[in-house]
Design brief:
mainly alpha; 2 strands; 75% helix; 2% strand; MFS transporter; MFS_dom; transmembrane
C-alpha cells in the first residue's frame, strides 16, 4: 500500500489502488483479538441476525396479512420489500455517519429505534400503518447493519481472525434471511401475524445492555465534514430507480416509471460527480477502481437476489400450491437455512486453498444450479417437495459462501478509518439484492400468473380479486360452485408454477453470466494481492 498527496487537501492519503483486496498471507504482527472481542462479536451477530430475519419474516405471513388487512397487490409488495428499500437507501449515509459519531453509538441508537418500530408493526391495523412501520424499521436497520461490520473491522486487526469473524457475521446474515420464514411459520402456528415482530424487543434490549460492556467504540479520527446534500442524493438516486424496476416488472412500461427512473439516474450522476469534488466524500469512489472490489460488490448483490426471490414465491408455493401449513412450510426451509450457515462458515476455510475469485465464481454457479432445479416443481398438491428442498439447499450454500467472501474482500480493501463506509457499500449491495429479488422475481411470477390464469368460468365481479394474487384466486374459488372452483384452482396453480419456472430460468442464466464476469474481473491484477 502506498501514499500520495491529496490534491484537494494537500495531506497524505492512502492509494487504494495499491491496497490488497484481502489478506490470506502469513500472519502479521497485528494484535490478536481478546475473549471480550469474541463475546462482542456474538452480540453484534445476534443484532444482525434479527435485521436479516425481518427482511423475510413476513414471507410466510402473506396469506394471514391478506386475510386480516386486505392489502392490494402493490401494498402487499410494499409491505414485504419497503423495509429493504429504505434500509438500502440509507446504508451509505448511516455507515458514514457511524464513522463520524462512533459506530457503537449509532448501533445503540438503531437498537432502540428498531424495537420501537417493531412494536408499531406488530399492532398495525391497516396496510398503510404496516407499511409505515416497515419504513421505520428500515431507517433503524440502516443504523445497525454498517455499524456491526464496521465494528468487526476495528475489533479484529489480525487478517485471519477477521476473516473468521466475518464468516460468523456472514452466517448470521445468510441464515437470518432463510430463518425468517421458519420463525414466521412457528409464530403463525401459535399467535397472530403481528407477533413475528415482537421477538425483536427482548433481543434489542439485550443489545442495549451488553454492547456498552463488550463492544469498544470506534470512529474515524479525522472524518471531515458530513455532506447532507450527498446523503440526500444517495437516497434520491436509489429509491426511484428501484421503484421503477419494481413497477415495470409488475405492470410494464409507463411514462411515470420513465420519469421515476430518470430522476434516479440523474441524481446518481450528480451524486458521483459531487463525490469526486469533495475532500471527505460520502463514498470513496477510488474503491470501485479495483476490479476485484467491483466483482465482490456485484456478487454480493446477485447471491441474495436469488435467495430473496425464492423465499417470496417459495413460501406461497409451499402453502397455496402444495397445501402446507405455515409451520410445515417453515420446516421445509430448514435445509436451506442450514446450508446458508454452513456456506458462510466454510468460506474462511475455502479461501485458504483457492483464490477468492474462484470461490466467488463457484458459489454463484452453485446458486444457479439450485435455481435451475425449480424447473422440476410440480403443480399437483400431492407432488414431491424434493426439488424445492434440494434447490433451496444449493441456493443457501452458494449464497452463504458468496456473501461472506465478498464482504471480506470489500471490508479488507478499505482503510480502518473508513470501515463503516466500506461496510455500508457491502450491505447496500446485499439489501439491494433482497429488495430487487422480491420486486423483480416476485413481480415476474405474478405477471406470468395473471397472464396464464383462466377466468372463463369466473363472474366478472370476482375476476379482479382472483387476479390480485394466488391467495386471491384460491379464496375466490371457495365461493364458486363445482366444477368452476376446481378449474380455477388448477389454473391458478399451473399459472403460478409457470411463473416460477420463468423466474428460475432467468435467475440461473443471470447467475452463470455473473459468475464468468465476476471471475474475469476479480482475477485482473490479483496475482500479487491474494
Amino acid at each position: 500500500m502506498s501514499t500520495q498527496p491529496n490534491a484537494r487537501s494537500g495531506t497524505p492519503t492512502t492509494d487504494l489502488r495499491a491496497a490488497p483486496v484481502t489478506t490470506h498471507a502469513a500472519p502479521t504482527a497485528a494484535p490478536k483479538a481478546r475473549p471480550r472481542d469474541w463475546a462482542g462479536l456474538a452480540v453484534l451477530a445476534l443484532a444482525l441476525l434479527l435485521i436479516a430475519v425481518d427482511a423475510t419474516v413476513l414471507d410466510l405471513a402473506v396469506p394471514s396479512i391478506t386475510a386480516d388487512l386486505a392489502p392490494t397487490t402493490p401494498q402487499l409488495l410494499w409491505i414485504i420489500d419497503v423495509y429493504s428499500f429504505v434500509l438500502a437507501g440509507l446504508l451509505v449515509t448511516m455507515g458514514t455517519l457511524g464513522d463520524r459519531i462512533g459506530r457503537r453509538r449509532l448501533l445503540l441508537i438503531g437498537a432502540a429505534g428498531f424495537a420501537l418500530a417493531s412494536a408499531l408493526a406488530a399492532w398495525a391495523i391497516s396496510p398503510e400503518m404496516l407499511i409505515a412501520a416497515r419504513v421505520l424499521q428500515g431507517v433503524a436497520g440502516a443504523t445497525l447493519m454498517p455499524a456491526t461490520l464496521g465494528l468487526i473491522r476495528s475489533m479484529f486487526a489480525d487478517a485471519r481472525q477477521r476473516t473468521l469473524a466475518i464468516s460468523v457475521w456472514g452466517a448470521m446474515a445468510a441464515s437470518g434471511a432463510a430463518f425468517g420464514p421458519l420463525l414466521g411459520g412457528w409464530m403463525l402456528e401459535h399467535f397472530w401475524w403481528g407477533a413475528v415482530f415482537l421477538v425483536n424487543l427482548p433481543v434489542m434490549a439485550l443489545l442495549l445492555v451488553l454492547a456498552p460492556i463488550l463492544v469498544p467504540e470506534s470512529r474515524d479520527p479525522n472524518p471531515g465534514r458530513f455532506d447532507l446534500v450527498s446523503a440526500g442524493l444517495s437516497m434520491l438516486a436509489l429509491i426511484p430507480v428501484v421503484y421503477a424496476v419494481k413497477e415495470f416488472a409488475a405492470h410494464g412500461p409507463s411514462l411515470n416509471l420513465l420519469i421515476s427512473a430518470g430522476v434516479g439516474v440523474t441524481a446518481g450522476v450528480w451524486f458521483v460527480r459531487r463525490q469526486r469534488g469533495l475532500a471527505a466524500p460520502l463514498i470513496d469512489l477510488d474503491l470501485f477502481r479495483l476490479p476485484a472490489f467491483r466483482a465482490a460488490v456485484f456478487t454480493n448483490l446477485l447471491s441474495v437476489f436469488a435467495l430473496a426471490g425464492v423465499l417470496f414465491f417459495g413460501s406461497q408455493y409451499l402453502q397455496l400450491v402444495l397445501g402446507k401449513s405455515p409451520l410445515q412450510a417453515g420446516l421445509l426451509l430448514i435445509p436451506g437455512t442450514v446450508g446458508s450457515m454452513l456456506g458462510a462458515l466454510a468460506a474462511a476455510w475455502l479461501v485458504r486453498y483457492w483464490r477468492p475469485a474462484t470461490v466467488l465464481a463457484g458459489s454463484l454457479v452453485t446458486v444457479a444450479l439450485g435455481a435451475g432445479l425449480y424447473w422440476l416443481l410440480p403443480t399437483d398438491p400431492s407432488g414431491s417437495v424434493t426439488p424445492f428442498i434440494v434447490g433451496f439447499l444449493l441456493i443457501g450454500l452458494g449464497e452463504g459462501v458468496a456473501l461472506t467472501v465478498s464482504a471480506d474482500m470489500i471490508v479488507s480493501t478499505a482503510p480502518e478509518a473508513r470501515a463503516g463506509n466500506a461496510a455500508a457499500i457491502s450491505e447496500t449491495a446485499m439489501e439491494m439484492g433482497i429488495a430487487l429479488g422480491v420486486a423483480v422475481l416476485g413481480s415476474a411470477v405474478m405477471a406470468a400468473f395473471r397472464g396464464g390464469l383462466d377466468l372463463t368460468h369466473v363472474p366478472s365481479a370476482q375476476a379482479d380479486a382472483a387476479r390480485e394474487s394466488l391467495g386471491g384466486a384460491i379464496e375466490t374459488a371457495r365461493a364458486l360452485p363445482e366444477p368452476a372452483a376446481g378449474e380455477l384452482v388448477s389454473s391458478a396453480h399451473s399459472a403460478f408454477v409457470t411463473g416460477i419456472h420463468l423466474a428460475a430460468t432467468s435467475t440461473a442464466v443471470l447467475l452463470l453470466l455473473t459468475a464468468f464476469v465476476a471471475y474475469r474481473a476479480a482475477t485482473r491484477k490479483m496475482s500479487a494481492t491474494v
